[in-house]
Amino acid sequence: MVGRELEMALTRLQWLYDKPGIENGKLLSILNGVIGDHLAQLNSPLEIKMKFLMRIGSKTDFCDIVDIENKNIDRVVVFVHGSSLDESSWVRNGFDYGKALESELGYKPIYLRYNSGLHISQNGRELSRKIDCLAETFPNLNEIVFVGHSMGGLLAHSAALIAESQNCKWRKMLSGIITLGTPHHGAKLERAGNVVEVLLGASRFSAPFKVLGRIRSAGVTDLRYGAVLDSHWQDLEGFTFFKDPRLSRDLPENVQCFAIAGTTSSLPSSDSPGDGLVTIGSALGRHSDSKLDLGFGEFNCHIVQDTSHMDLLSNGEVLSKITEWIRSIGSVCC
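The chain above was modelled as a monomer; its predicted structure follows.
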């Protein structure tokens, strides 16, 4: 019944595709975040296709990068949004990290739009392919920095690791990855949803409602433990209660990686609460198992107080830290 109703609902949502606009775009992003893998299987026009965008004016003015006339670009910062969001999330409450970095450091901001309901590793492969095309579009391109919020940080790491394994040309251009509130070791909310689902299935009276808990995309279930490679989710049924399947977790080689964690507390301690969605430990890549601990250096980590998960996108302290880190990356590259 849920399946049939879902099909009917998708048909009724066709207007989201027919009438583009920033608000409709946000609704599409939410829809893709929740059932994006299902949309891809249906080859639905409601599925968001991955593309690079540039901002050409106000908050609503983003255009496809292929339409940009100026191809003389050598350094870019690629902004990767989180689950169920889109490129407009990077322009929030008067903050525009991309514009600020372009003005301060000269890096051209590029924004990725993607279907966050797909597996992170699937998007990672596509992102790697897209950046190869980006390098062809901008023949003078010689440096790439990723800034990823939430799931976006996982996607950036996934693309880098995949490009590394495939010896992609663009991989040598990647100088840094900065993550904001990224669940490197998963988000407790997804695992909590999984537990609720198991409990619903424990009784024959509640079992029929278990299907409702399965309206979570592959991208969302990847957030359970921070799966960035195929091996982290293959051969596992997405809604089965299982332990962390990752045997190890590494940062990309020869890339300066940084992590920002938010906390709703006014205490700077790593023991304080997280940003409401991601714990400080997960955001900073810390793990009790040395094989999974990402080992960010002290200079490469920062905790922002009195900040929620979404507020990491519009915070002066976050922007200052991003600017400081990218400046340090640029000095090393030079």
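The longest strand covers residues 143-149.
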